[in-house]
Amino acid sequence: VLATLEDAPQRRAVELAGADLAEAEAALARIEHGSTAEELRQARAEHDAAAARSGLARSTEARITLLHDQGAVPDADAERASADARVESAQAERAEARLQEMVRGARSEDRSAARARVEAARARLRLAEANLARRQVVAPAAGSVLLSRFHPGEFYAVGAGPLFVLGDTGRLQVRLEVDEIDSMAIDPRAPCALYSDAGARLAEGAVVRLAPKMGRRALAIESPTARSDVRV
To answer: Is the pTM value of this prediction over 0.70?
Structure first.
């Protein structure tokens, strides 16, 4: 990694996607594992309580209806007792259905939907991580940074030039000029050695290629008396 662009929004997106995935996985685990023993006991207790309230409401309705038929209870009380009995009966049926659902477990459709939500959350997390990774400028190959055009805190936009100039300094290519009279003695595959003007051995290598045509001398040399029109 050579540089990291501002990535606060992308990091927040990764955190949010990770939280969504954790929530979806927890919901899937709850569906696959089913209800706990404590939840089943609570559901049975609520069912028993609802059934008891429904039985009491029906008894009250029957007693008030009998009194109403004898003219001892007004119509409003009889209607209220009947409505209360229907409400308590509906609550009891609801508690019984809830208990049966918990005992039976989740349906296959619910399991499939929960798994799909988990896969969707994972895909969103991968997308967020990919967007975050794109905020890092990574070297395409091993090498050395030869030039850095920007500094931390400066604005960079695509098209403003390269952020870095890289080079592989482990392998150098040297361009030499050889006089025309010596060019025919050069073998493109021959080993060679480089020496300084003082005679010090600098490096060893091999001839990679020869120029396809002759031309005038272009590289500056140390000798002030050297001719510049020599073909090389």
So the answer is: no
